[in-house]
Amino acid sequence: METVTTIRPRALVRASGGPRYAVALAVDALGTGLLRPFLLLYGVMVLRLSAPATGIAMTAGIVVGLVCMPAVGRWLDRGARSTVVAASMLVRALGVALLLATPAGHVWPFAAAALLLGIGNQAWPAAHAALVATVAHGRERDTALAAGRALRNAGLGVGALLATACLAGGATALRAMAVATGIAYLTAAALAWSVRLRARPAVDPEGDAAAGPAPRMRGLLAANVVYVFCLNVPEIALPLVLVTQLHASPVWPAAVFVANTVLVVTLQLPVTVLLSRFPRRNVLALAGVLLAVSYLGFLAATSLRGGWGAPAVAAVSVVCTLGEIVYAGSATALVTALAPAHTLGRVLARFELSTGFGLAVSPAVITALAPHGPTALWGGLAGATLLSASAVAAEKDGNAHLCRR
Q1: What CA–CA distance (Å, rounded) separates 209 from 123?
Q2: Which residue ranges does UniProt annotate as crossing the membrane (predicted)?
Q3: Does the predicted model carry a pTM greater than 0.85?
Q4: 3 state SS of 201
């Protein structure tokens, strides 16, 4: 069984696409952190749209953006790599330009800008994973994917902190952040395109059918929809519970979010390396168990009285973040290991479809369950996640030997 026991920075940079590509990732993440968390505020404060109209436009952009994924998968399977990554960044730059050109009170141009941003945000993960899978192999690829996620979270965190510090400037500051985001996307697109990485389309001489069909992965894809809820727990579920149910200070959800970001940045890579000695599928099932345990911990924490609820929720959030780290370090790695080379793009596109769908529906599910009490919210999430972990562990695949390597 192949394992990674040490972290060698130079080798890691090469496995992640090279120095220019690493800089492109950092610049792209910094720009995203400046605007994406505050896009709703931009619609309300700068464009003077109603909050419901702004939210609907943003949600529609995310959902409709998923439609582009099959085309992205086919493009990747023709051998494109850095070009697709650069295109995903350029599409977002166009979205920011349209956002800046939108007159106050006009919702449709804002919706079009949200759509372009949604397309870029949906296409980027699959394109990035395909690029890394072309440069690195085996457990080195898993480590490179983990390093990319840590770098991206660091950039997002720094961008969000800078944006938060500038919010006192009101609408003018939000416009300035949008301009900075557009410049960052254009710079990142140029850097990614300059890498000029392609893969030879891995097609068997007798055709795709002879090379083998793409794995169905129905259990894995269905489980991923539930797993991905963990990404919205720090941003949606915990603020909702802490502020509206436990009546805690807004400082608590902010502290939980900052702690989540710091833990992901510092632990994503070493945890992925540590778990490389185990089969990827088992690690992904373990992530589901950790997440379910954390959800049950939140259920217990919310029942505490005397001011202990908020500190207990913050403590349990560490377990939830560990589950998120284990999930993020194994899910995409498992998919890239399962996918035959000639269908890598399409398989990654299907996986990102399930991720995007989970991210799109999770806010609605969380906010619908929360009014029915902690048992409905946390008990429901725990049960669904345990079922998903069981489905991941039980599913069989034709490339099982790849998952153990």
Answers
A1: 26
A2: 21-45, 51-72, 84-104, 110-138, 150-170, 176-195, 225-248, 254-276, 283-301, 313-339, 351-370, 376-394
A3: yes
A4: coil
How many CA within 13 A on the CB side of residue 361?
Answer: 12
Residue 8 has pLDDT above 70, yes or no: no
Is 126 within 8 Å of 81 (Cβ atoms)? no
Query: Residue 397: what pLDDT?
Result: 63
Q: Which domains does the chain have, with CATH numbers?
A: 9-200 (1.20.1250.20), 214-404 (1.20.1250.20)
Cα angle value 137/334/260 (rounded, 5°):
105
User: Residue written as tokens 């990827």?
Assistant: 280
Residue 219 to residue 168: CA distance in whole angstroms: 47
The residues with which 80 forms a beta bridge, in sequence order, are 198
H or E stretch covering 204: none
33 or 200, higher pLDDT: 33
Whose structure tokens read 């070493």? 270
Residue 198, beta-bridge partner list: 80
Whole-Å CA distances, 114 to 59, 61, 374? 8, 5, 33
* Coil, helix or strand at residue 309: helix
Contacts (Cβ under 8 Å, ≥6 apart) of 129: 145, 332, 335, 336, 348
- Up-side HSE of residue 172: CA atoms within 13 Å toward CB? 2
